[in-house]
What we know:
FAD/NAD(P)-binding domain; 28% helix; 21 helices; globular
Amino acid sequence: MANEKQTAESSRTFRRYEDGDTTPESWQDYIFKAGWSYKCPVYVQRTPTCQNGCPAGEDIRGWLDVVRGLDKPPAEVSWQEHAFRRLTRANPFPGIMGYVCPAPCEEGCNRRAVEDHVGINAVEQFIGEAALAGRFHFAKPLEESGKRVAIIGGGPGGLACAYQLRLKGHACTIFEAREQLGGMLRYGLPNYRTPPAVVEGEIQRILDLGVTIKTGVRVGRDVSFEDLDRDFDAVFWAIGTQVGRIPEIPGAHAPNCVGGIEFLREFNEGRMPSVPRRIVVVGGGDTSIDVTTVARKLGGFAATKPDGSPLTYTADMVTQAAIHSGQKVTLTSVLPTAKLKASEREVEDARSLDVAILGNVMPLAVTLDADGRACGVRFAPCEHGKDGKRVRVPGDEIEIPADLVVFAIGQVADMTGLEALDNGRHAIAAGPGLQVLGHPKHFVGGDIITPHLLATAIGHATVAADGIDALLKGQAVARRPHIDKRHFDIREGLPTRALPVDGKVTSPAFVHNFEDRAHREVIKSDALFLAHFSTTPRLARTERRLAEIFTEGGTRIMPLDEAQAVAEAKRCMSCGLCLECDNCVVFCPQVAVKKVPRDQKALGYYVTTDYTRCIGCHICADVCPAGYIQMGLGE
Length: 635
């Protein structure tokens, strides 16, 4: 019986014949079947699965091709800067993303069909760190449009929109209710997950484009909706969801019951000198894990003022108070412990800090003492029915003692003063192009539409910025493509000598018989020649345990070095775009497939076909590892 390794090797092996075949097929019959004889190679660009899974819409294959050396940088530009510029067309926060993004791109990576996904997030982290170390900056717009855009909210979505709009030449003013920009990056994540220097550096790089900021100003209180309409040509709403949702159960509004976001904000601002002895956290997602690990081991963080000086309390002070009090932290979830929404590594860290995790329980009520403060939480066993709704199941109720109850079950927006935009669910309704319904000058993005990932807010910012740009130019907000990402354009890298006399290419077909289907087609692993790729283990980053961070300081995820980042990028299979492997040139029996002249080649323009020689034998398509060659001339 074949073992797993043999099965995996077999699945990656291309075979013209299968076991049991005894008679070879006539090559003449294979090539000249009715209706097939005209089929010759066409070069088809499709969207890779990693890019399709990226909510920020990054051209992941493109910047990985830079790191691996396929896409050469211009003269006097390092490959690190070239990769940075390719990546940040969609996302201005490569360093931050490298630390905190759960990397949905990796879940769909076609390399999984060989052995393991490419460490996309690890390479992104390296690029982000290299950009900060090299002091890479964004190029300011060559011309100013004279248009003014108000951006409400200085979190990642608002900052990303300001970045995209400044590149288009529009003046931007960010209104932020808090004293510092950053939103959830600064106030909602522990510093061991996002180093403050990375957050500060990537925010400042955007501000250096000439963004006006007004902090400590709350729209709806200090500035009215009517003021924005009068003073600005367009408005982008990125106010996020700043208030933790509290369940509608008895006792949940006691003074020592708080939302998970508020709890983390208190710590990140250094305003909580100690924590109670018994803490019950209701949740199961990443925020709830952050709460439990912070409360159990790290305590407060050495949050800093703008000048870099520490705020009131240090991590040591708070943590010692927690540990010496014999603190007990319990995390509960309506989901089974094996199916918590938090990432596996976060759950394991919580367990390593002796956090008790209890699944399949639903909160019934918060028990109050004589002073009206929470002293426990009562739970009942539950499970999820076929419709996805939780239902109570037979079993004894339990009560967990608590001096503090933290509800990390989601967030809602504070719409005070913004009732004109409230869709009735503490959110803003968006139409096509993320225009606010009923308010054509206004656009919206991020968690205020629906809470999701940091990358999602950044993707929304790009879509909204494009819509705002169209509006300010007097154009209709365009319908978005089916696959709405930042796509590679083959024409960008073509040398001048490869272009027509006027230096312009109006159609990619000028290059060779090329079709760009990236806006409507995703390439899957079954379209690749997987046998081309040898088994190459992923270079995983070092992930430190929280106990180690507590004693030694630093961050959780350690970046790859340069050699490791390049090696990991070389594992990318360049799905849907030429890998420059020479297979099609080597195996073509008619010598019909040839390399383009060296001084004309560019990424995606590496080979061409002499159709006077091609007999449609399909061999070039069969051995193309990236699935870039398709037979059919336009089919």
